[in-house]
Automatic annotation (TrEMBL), chain A:
InterPro entries: ArsR-like_HTH, HTH_ArsR_DNA-bd_dom, WH-like_DNA-bd_sf, WH_DNA-bd_sf
Coiled-coil stretches noted in the UniProt entry, renumbered to this chain: none
Protein name from the UniProt record: Metalloregulator ArsR/SmtB family transcription factor
Domain HTH arsR-type, residue spans: 1-109
Automatic annotation (TrEMBL), chain B:
Lineage: Bacteria, Pseudomonadati, Pseudomonadota, Alphaproteobacteria, Hyphomicrobiales
Stored Pfam families: AHSA1 (PF08327)
Domain Activator of Hsp90 ATPase homologue 1/2-like C-terminal: 14-136
Protein name: SRPBCC domain-containing protein
Domain of life: Bacteria
Organism the protein comes from: Hoeflea prorocentri
Amino acid sequence: MNGGIQGAFRALADPTRREILIKLSEREMTIAEVAENFAITRGAVKKHLTILEEGRLISVHTHGRERINRLEADALRPVSDWLSYFDRFWGSRMLDLKSAVEKHERNSDE
Amino acid sequence: MSNAEIIKTIFLAASRETVWDFLTRSEKLAEWFHPAERDLAEGEDYALMGQTDDGAPARLCWGTVVEMDKPSKMVWTFTIRPLDGAMTTVTWLLDDVADGTRLTLHHTGFTDIAAPFELMRALDSGWDKHLSDLRAADAL
């Protein structure tokens, strides 16, 4: 699987992280501002933001001493397009299957 | 999305029985997909195993083998880890053709994949803006 889209899927698999994205769609926020919306520790929020950043669904900008989190909505586009995702997924799997089956056949002929 | 489906067909220079083994036996699945916990059996759950980002063993794809009609048809429910348990349906069809096997994959049932769509709805205004920007860029 493509590393980029896999990271985005991982980030989206958690309901708290999806809620964070919705909050960030309203405006950019610091970690403290994000944390105000959730009944979890600031450390836990920070971990979620790191995973979102790794999935490239948000970007982090330094403004003075603050770290500002911004939604990168463009990164959601390939994730929302399930058909093209699975189309590529099966395309590459089935090519691998063809190679494996035909290698097996060649070996059994010898 | 309810009518959405993926259909893929490949021709394999091997008998249907050989192709069937590659779809159902753990060590053969490992050669092109991921190793299964055990050989697949009708009515039983299956899981194809890999590793998480931290290197811990984890199920990557899993579901139930709903139907097995050796060596011509198999139906799975199917999900992958990032889908958070939402199930889709995968059907494998094997047909005899001259010199080999025609293998067809049908992947359907994308209606349960709700999470990203909820998110899309919530982000809808952002998308409208993005799309209008895109149209404006196209018009240039």
